[in-house]
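Reopening: structure tokens for the adenosine-5'-diphosphate complex, inputs below.
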Amino acid sequence: MSKKKLNILFVASEVFPYAKTGGLADVAGVLPKALKELGHNIIVVMPRYYQIDKSKLTHVDGALGVPMGPMGELWAGVFTTKLPQSEVSVYFIDYEHFYGRRSLYDENGTPYEDNDNRFIFLSKASLQLCKMLDFKPDIIHANDWHTASLPLLSKTRFAEDFSNAGTVLTIHNLEHQGNFYKGGMDVMEIGWHHFNPMEFESHDRLNLLKGGIAHADAVTTVSKRYAQEIQTSEFGFGMEHHIRAHASKLFGILNGVDYDEWSPAVDKHIAEHFDIGNMNGKLECKRALQKHFGLELRDDVPLIGFVGRFATQKGIGLIAGIISGLMQQDLQIVMLGTGEKWAEHYFGEISGRHSDKFALHVGYSDALAHQIEAGCDMFLMPSLFEPCGLNQIYSLRYGTLPIVRATGGLDDTIENFDEAHNSGNGFKFYAPTHDALYHTVMWAVGVYKNNQKAFLSMQKRAMKNHFSWRDAALAYEDVYKYALAKHTK
Ligand code: ADP
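Re-run output (same inputs, fresh job):
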């Protein structure tokens, strides 16, 4: 019997390559393609942010009326294109008042005040769009708090057209829950009886993610370890009891990697290509990176990279605490990131004082992220928590050995170096302390300098690791079946 092909509506607030602030965009830009390759019929919906050039998109005829409670019906335009190298249609909801802004979610560190309305609007618009396209989803796949109202919307306000759809909510990061003034309940139009601590209420405020978790037929998160961790007070951000109450429908599915984008054999951003059979190009990438940052040009010095948001989550406090100590050692560090201002200033100061061995680029640069992955010997990711983490997985493919804290997806993807058995693909530490990080960095540096044979064989092992989106898509397929079966019971 051939398996049932599903119609899937996939909605996300950011999708690579159109708009990206983090890992959600990477996932939303590739998972739909992998699902399509399994034979499913999937459409992706996201906002048409101001930065997305509409002249490169196709205008869809007709206007979309989106009911927004007290705001009345708002009318949006729709644009479309295909995800690169695929037949997956992406639809962009065009509504200037909400999306015609400088940034996706915030400006100068301050979130837009109407983020609740902006993303409830996206969620409702995606359902109206399905009606306009006569697309009848079997599965509605929502991502993070932005679209977490979809499961209940599809069963209440939009039940007439969507009550048969199974709903799946993926949590990419539990820290961000969509916590707002409760007036958003009126905008959702789902009825105030859903405003209670088991559903959308948290301390008399609206918590979109909480309601999504309550009402989705299945909830997933992006690694198995994180699925366990979010049930504890250490990682639950106050939501642990609620998540435990719904643990029977919670699944952990590790993200894959788009190796067309992130592979040193084909990477369009790097100085020279390389692969396991020929590592010479990696040295050229290292030299190019040192040159780019004005570091001392030396092949033999260990070069350590960091790419990521400057947020507490990413362990920047730990790095800040040991950086002066590391500057006394024979090593180099490059950092690319933006976020908390204290960190930008602090690391900026260090780069001024130690310009031959420490370099900082404050900002967002896709090309530089690739160049750091390729040119460094080691990659630093000491996150306090990490739902999946993509950069450590990208690093593996570039033979850039990750130094990570054993949490979430970092723990699931990195196996600690074991000198006695010549095994492992990186360096891991456990306690979130300065000492543990410092000693682990120095351990990695020691292996690099004194045991080059072991370092090289670890690099080659790392480069062979393969994190396939096809495997992830097959796991999502199982979750979709579970959601449908549960939903139609
Ligand atoms: P998160 O989603 O928590 O930010 P992930 O590791 O899952 O972390 O994904 C981060 C993604 O964003 C990676 O693709 C990474 O390369 C990219 N990224 C983060 N910060 C920057 C930056 N400053 N410049 C370029 N890319 C960045």
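The mean pLDDT is 97. Residues 22-23, 26, 173, 307-309, 336-338, 364-366, 369, 388-391 surround adenosine-5'-diphosphate (CB under 6 Å). Marking as resolved unless the reporter disagrees.
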